[in-house]
DNA sequence: GCCAACGTTGGC
DNA sequence: GCCAACGTTGGC
């Protein structure tokens, strides 16, 4: 069982929409490290849901991996923003997972709050701000969960 | 809207 | 295989 963190801009796809729909396909990831992280996911793994590019950015809830990595169909769709002409169906370059809603926190845990906590020093979120799908070590997961509810 | 950080591309 | 140029992300 591993823990993860998924970033999304709430305007594009927020926690409220995930709550309403119950689950979604995590398509459109076009970064190799983020893709590799998704490939490493197991069904049942939990992840923080993070709102980026919004005021304030921060962790807003928890989601769960429902289906392990499979080809992201948007890479083959010329009409999609995520179309990738360098990929082909024989050897799909990009993958996605399905994630389900687990819970929404009563309040956002802002990035600013996270940065203030000494026990979170070294967390990927704080040092590698641009990685959109990332692993979360268990000690960080537990520390954050304690203040979440 | 700016810009720092950093990932990717492409020339050599 | 290096690295400069370029593009994108995302906090502020």
The percent of residues in helical segments reads 25-40%
Q: What is the succession of H and E elements?
A: EHHEHEEEHHEH
CATH topology, what is it called?
Answer: ph1033 like fold
Look at the helices and sheets and give the structural class: alpha+beta
| Number of discrete helical segments | 6
- Give me the side-by-side strand order of the main sheet: 2-5-4-3-1-6
Q: What is the count of β-strands?
A: 6
What form results from the Cα inertia axes?
A: globular
How far from one another are the termini?
22 Å
Taken as a percent bin, the fraction of beta residues is 25-35%
Oligomeric organization of the protein chains? single chain
Number of separate domains: 1
Describe this structure in words.
- The chain is α+β, with helices and mostly antiparallel strands.
- The chain has a single domain, classed as ph1033 like domains (ph1033 like fold, Roll), CATH 3.10.590.
- The chain is 27% helix and 33% strand.
- It contains six helices and six strands, in the order E-H-H-E-H-E-E-E-H-H-E-H.
- A six-stranded mixed sheet has the order 2-5-4-3-1-6.
- A hairpin with a 6-residue loop joins strand 3 and strand 4.
- The protein is globular.
- It starts with a strand and ends with a helix.
- The model has no long low-confidence stretch (mean pLDDT 94).
- It binds a DNA duplex (12 and 12 nucleotides) through loops.
